[in-house]
Every structure is written in C-alpha cells, then in structure tokens.
Amino acid sequence: MSQPVQPPNPPQQPYGGGQPTDGNPYAQQPGGPNPPQPGAPYPPQPAAPTGNPFAQQPGAQPGQFGGAPFQPAPPARTNIGLGVAAALGAAIVAAILYGVIAGSIEREIGYAAVGVGFLVGFVGSKVGGSNPAVIGAGVVFSLVAVFFGQLIGMSMIVADALHVSFSEIFFDRFGALLDVWKEEADFMTYLFLLLGPVAAFGGARKAVG
Questions:
Q1: Are 115 and 86 in contact (CB under 8 A)?
Q2: For an engineered disulfide with 117, which of 77, 112, 145, 196 has Cβ 3.0 to 4.6 Å away?
Q3: 21 forms bridges with which residues in the sheet?
Q4: Residue 137 and residue 206: Cα distance in Å, rounded?
C-alpha cells in the first residue's frame, strides 16, 4: 500500500505580521509610515523619528544658529598723526595770511584771529577725528599761528618804515622784533591771542559734530 503524499509547506507569513504589498514581503518596514486604514479621515502620519531629536529639520538652513557669534564692526580709528600734521599745515598757512593782512592795513582785526583759530581747529579735527590730542594740538597751533601772524605783520610794517627787506627784519633781527612786539603789545594784542584758541575749539566741534 502506498503512503499518502505530504502536502507542500504552506507559505510563511512575513516577519512583523504585515501583509505583503504587491508581492514584496519587505514593503512595510518597522518605523515606516502606517498604511492607510479603510475609512480613516486623515492620511497616515510619519513614524516617530529615531536617533537625535535635534537633528536638522527639513527647510532649516545649515548653521543658522550655530557657529561663531556675530562680531560687531570695529570702531573707526582716528588718525591722530595725520590730524596733527593737517592742523600744523593749516596753522602755517593761516599765520602767513593773518600777517599779510595785518601788515597791509597796518592794524589787527579780531575776525582775522577768529578765522585763524577756526581754520586750524576745523582742518585738524576733520582729518584726525575727535581725539583729544588732535583738538589740543589745534588749540596750541592756533595760538602760535596768531602770534606769528602778529610778528609777520609787524615785520612788514617795520621793513616798510626802514626801507629794508622783510627777511632782514624777520630772520636777521628776530630778537629785536620780539622786543618791539613786547613794547607795542596791549590788551587787544593779548585778546586776539586768546580768540585764536577759543575759535579753534569751536572749529573742532564743528568738524566732528
């Protein structure tokens, strides 16, 4: 008698208990989106993320909040040396102009002394900024400019009276010129010397204001 034939092994259910999709037993993987249920009003939600919960999300820019902190722009540096040099150059020019005007009209004008100081202070601070060293240099240079302007004007007057050259009075007899200035100096002479530095400070404030 022949023995009964054993039926073939039945198909095994895929791992995880899910049903194969289109014949692919690995279509539904753990962690993937749940398949839509019949009659469900909403589409399936993605599975919970695994690993680092703070990983980059879609749409985020890389390094948006990371990296080095924002560095503010460094403050503008004032060029002290160039400002002092500019004030000195303006003082030399202003002293010559002041002396020529005073020598030509044979008198001093208060507005001219104010103009000398304002020009020196304005030019120095316009180039060198609001540094106190630049402002202080402008004040000192304006005082010296007014003083030498007075000497230049007096040299022109004396040279014209003695019928000699300007250079002979200003360079060759500078000591005698100082003695004459001391004898002729009065209240207005010192007032004009004071107006120069005051105007220089105002010019510096105007330049950086």
A1: no
A2: 196
A3: 24
A4: 16
